[in-house]
Design goal:
The protein has 30 helices and 35 strands. By secondary structure, it is α/β, with parallel strands linked by helices. A hairpin with a 4-residue loop joins strand 20 and strand 21. The strands form 10 sheets. It has a 6-stranded mixed beta sheet, covered by helices on one side. The chain has a 6-stranded mixed barrel with strand order 24-32-29-31-30-33. Helix 1 packs parallel to helix 2, helix 6 (140-153) packs across helix 25 (559-571) and helix 13 packs antiparallel against helix 16. The chain folds into 4 domains: 10-90, no CATH class; 99-192 and 423-518 and 526-613, Rossmann fold (3-Layer(aba) Sandwich), CATH 3.40.50; 197-409, Dimethylsulfoxide Reductase, domain 2 (3-Layer(aba) Sandwich); 649-783, Barwin-like endoglucanases.
Length: 784
């Protein structure tokens, strides 16, 4: 059923349909919206082989979120968005050779993300020469030679940057960072820089590890789960099953979020009768509809109440034994929170004192507490400090290092955590670099490289001339779309290792190459036989992943093969690496990993164990903390109120239900009641009345910043929605237009996508869903 150049029907954003948002997630609709596109685009055979092999032993790991696998797995161990991700990748539709002559890059640049992706799988390397407006197909040897030649022509290794998305396997990531450091730079920006970098910084400084301190079983056995800035129903739906099990075990859930998401309210498990014909399971026992940016104030207020409860009944509330043996900073924290102003807390959070009292009461009554969060926290201006406050609250009652309790950042990309473990970071510690250098007989660079934001700055300034991306869609994912695209246009060469077309292939610089790669669903046969790769999930479990279907083209190379050939062509004997051997047999890569990466010793044996293995985690396993003093740090963090002037709103960006990161599967967001469109802004009805706007009105959305630039989205449609008062929401990546490049989280340098001050104005003349002069990214047709 392979077909080329499919017709993609465009629609007008004026056809937008809005209905009442859902108050439950899952159910039979989730089954339908999982299977319908899979059967349509893959056929029953390919759909069955992929979906029934996803997240199963002997199968492949879902390329969507990093939610852990339960010990006992069902036959259908996948969710709606996982099924969409598999369908998107495993489609047999391919891009024909004649496509490149028929479609100039200038035309492709005007197409939507959905249209680009729907053209099918990339199956041959293509090259755009300087001064030309078309890609043309070339052979693999020429493609590798052009990239290697350009790299070797640079004046300095730091004139190149090497991006990584979370879809890369552990083996590919390890080989990639070896290639980059062998080339001579630590310029390794990755998607973590834009999402959970704040988690790494906040947790690393307080408990010595930037990963979750829980296991899968801890979720289902916790007394209380506090879910902050997170939308499980859309971003990691398999978490809903764990939440359901926790409720069945007698646990409670508190949801803290500016929007009342369906997946925080009720879950209808389609694999259970009550999820099909019954009401399902009520999830959140308490919903705190917090003002955007107010999470830090809420956490401080709860910790203040915990300390007050201890003062009222000394020796009965805090876990003194744990605090004395494993923590420091309690008295400083106590003194700091004694000065916390309740009026400031209520203004910052938009909550009542009674609501905060209720949360504190639930926390005090629970023996085992998990606090879990996602980008609703990490992308706030004070995201790092907020995560430190999460750790403070957990430490006060010993909720780290015991069953059913802990801190849990939820990674939204399948192996973004494993990539970091394997060395994808611009600031890897000396011990890792020492081990890498000893293993491969070279001296790795020691200076810190650039992260994602700094990479854009240096491209803009002409310091970085070549950009090579291992997966992802950097141009669309980054903040300040106009600045990012202008910077990418300054490149001398842009190289993308990809499975499907996306926006980053259309913002090219002078020269550009697309190197097509196999997907995780596909069987990978090399010289030594069929290969597997490995990934690490959000609770540090490492397990193998095997492809289940034949590649869509014999011309495709695996990510590992592409990296190995680049390494051989570029580095020669600069490092003692057997590039040909790496491509032929992935066990050889894992053997080196076992010598370099702490916790991965004896990797080849352990990855073949039933279920793989779990990496050591000091706070979780033994209440040991890799901090300068060896103790967990209770920290003091100044509370800065996010000021919003009168007549303005606080905007957050978010995903629709029909997307994964920048990949747009369709133009419906059924949980929020949106159909046939994405150019919408969700605003509380009372705010609309006060501001003088009406539901359905077209407005221009202006971002307001100290740099004086007027970033604007033209003719966005208002949707009256039960958002928190004073807050608004719009879809990512379109709303990245409004996020300044230099507006970043203090400490982590992550773009601040959850705290953009905006004003609404009646729409000026122009196309619906357009953008102003500062960014033309959104001025493109919508599609279904």
């Amino acid at each position: 059923m392979t077909r080329n150049n499919p017709e993609v029907r465009e629609v007008d954003e004026n056809d937008l349909e809005v209905s009442k948002p859902k108050d439950w997630a899952g159910g039979l609709p989730a089954v339908y919206y999982s299977m319908e596109p899979a059967l349509e685009h893959m056929g029953p055979g390919r759909a069955g082989r992929t979906l029934l092999g996803m997240n199963q032993r002997g199968g492949f790991d879902c390329m969507s979120c990093a939610w852990p696998d339960p010990g006992h797995r069902s036959t259908f161990e996948f969710c709606e968005n996982g099924a969409k991700a598999v369908t998107w990748e495993a489609t047999p539709v391919t891009v024909a050779s004649e496509f490149w002559a028929e479609h100039p890059i200038s035309e492709l640049r005007e197409k939507s993300e959905y249209w680009l992706g729907m053209q099918g799988r990339l199956v041959e390397p293509v090259y755009k020469a300087a001064g030309e407006d078309h890609y043309r197909p070339i052979g693999w040897d020429e493609a590798i030679g052009r990239v290697a030649g350009k790299l070797k022509s640079l004046g300095s290794a730091d004139e190149a940057a090497f991006y990584t998305s979370g879809r890369a396997s552990n083996e590919a990531a390890f080989l990639y960072q070896l290639f980059v450091r062998g080339f001579g730079t630590n310029n390794l920006p990755d998607c973590s820089n834009m999402c959970h970098e704040s988690s790494g910084w906040g947790m690393g400084q307080t408990i010595g590890v930037g990963k979750a301190t829980v296991t899968y079983d801890d979720f289902v056995n916790s007394d209380l789960m506090i879910v902050i800035g997170q939308n499980p129903g859309t971003n990691h739906p398999r978490m809903l099953t764990a939440m359901e099990r926790q409720k069945e075990n007698g646990g409670q859930i508190v949801a803290v979020n500016p929007l009342p998401e369906a997946g925080l309210r009720r879950f209808k498990n389609p694999q259970k009768p009550k999820g099909v014909i019954g009401k399902g399971t009520e999830l959140a026992d308490q919903f705190l509809q917090i003002r955007a940016g107010g999470d830090m104030a809420l956490l401080q207020a709860v910790s203040q109440r915990v300390l007050a409860a201890e003062d009222a009944a000394p020796g009965t509330v805090l876990d003194h034994e744990f605090l004395e043996a494993h923590c420091e900073g309690l008295e400083q924290l106590r003194a700091h929170l004694a000065e916390l102003d309740e009026a400031t807390v209520l203004e910052a959070t938009g909550l009542t004192a009674e609501e905060i009292d209720e949360l504190a009461g639930r926390y005090l009554a629970a023996e085992k507490v998990i606090i879990t969060w996602a980008m609703g926290v990490t992308q706030q201006k004070n995201g790092v400090a907020t995560i430190k406050e999460i750790i403070n609250l957990l430490l006060l009652r010993g909720n780290i290092g015991k069953p059913g309790a802990g801190a849990s950042p939820i990674r939204g990309h399948s192996n973004v955590q494993g990539d970091r473990t394997m060395g994808i970071w611009e600031q890897m510690p000396p011990a890792f670099l020492d081990a890498l250098g000893e293993e491969f007989s070279f001296d790795p660079p020691r200076g810190h490289g650039v992260d994602a934001v700094e990479a854009v700055r240096q491209m803009r300034d002409g310091k970085i001339k070549l950009f090579l991306a291992l997966g992802g869609n950097f141009t669309a994912a980054m903040s300040d779309t106009a600045a990012t695209e202008a910077a990418m246009d300054e490149l001398e060469m842009n190289v993308q290792i990809s499975t499907k077309l996306n926006r980053s292939h259309t913002v090219t610089g002078a020269e550009a190459l697309i190197l097509p790669t196999m997907g995780r669903t596909e069987i990978d046969v090399q010289a030594s036989g069929e290969q597997f790769v490995s990934v690490e999930d959000t609770v540090s479990a490492v397990h193998p992943s095997w492809g289940r279907v034949a590649p869509v083209s014999e011309n495709l190379l695996s990510e590992i093969a592409i990296i190995a050939r680049l390494g051989r062509a570029t580095l020669g004997e600069a490092v003692a690496a057997d590039w040909e051997g790496f491509e032929a047999d992935y066990d050889t890569i894992r053997e080196h990993i076992s010598h370099v990466v702490v916790g991965c010793e004896d990797y080849n044996r352990r990855i073949r164990q039933e279920g793989g293995f779990v990496l050591a985690n000091g706070p979780r396993d033994s209440r040991t903390f890799n901090t300068p003093t060896g103790k967990a740090q209770l920290s003091v963090n100044a509370l800065d109120l996010l000021e919003c002037p009168p007549g303005r709103l606080i905007l957050q960006t978010l995903r629709s239900h029909d997307q994964f990161n920048t990949t747009i599967y369709g133009y419906n967001d059924r949980y929020r009641g949106i159909k046939k469109g994405r150019h919408v802004i969700f605003v509380n009805p009372q705010d609309l009345e006060e501001l003088g706007f009406e539901d359905g009105q077209l407005v221009d959305v202006h971002g307001e910043y100290v740099d004086g630039k007027d970033r604007v989205l033209r003719k966005w449609r208002i949707v009256s929605y039960p958002a928190a008062r004073g807050c608004a929401a719009a879809y990512y990546p379109e709303a990245n237009v409004l996020v300044p490049l230099d507006d970043t989280v203090e400490g982590s340098n992550t773009p601040v996508s959850k705290g953009v001050i905006i004003r609404l104005e009646p729409a000026e003349d122009g196309p619906a869903g357009g953008a102003g002069e500062e960014n033309q990214r959104a001025d493109m047709p919508a599609t279904v």
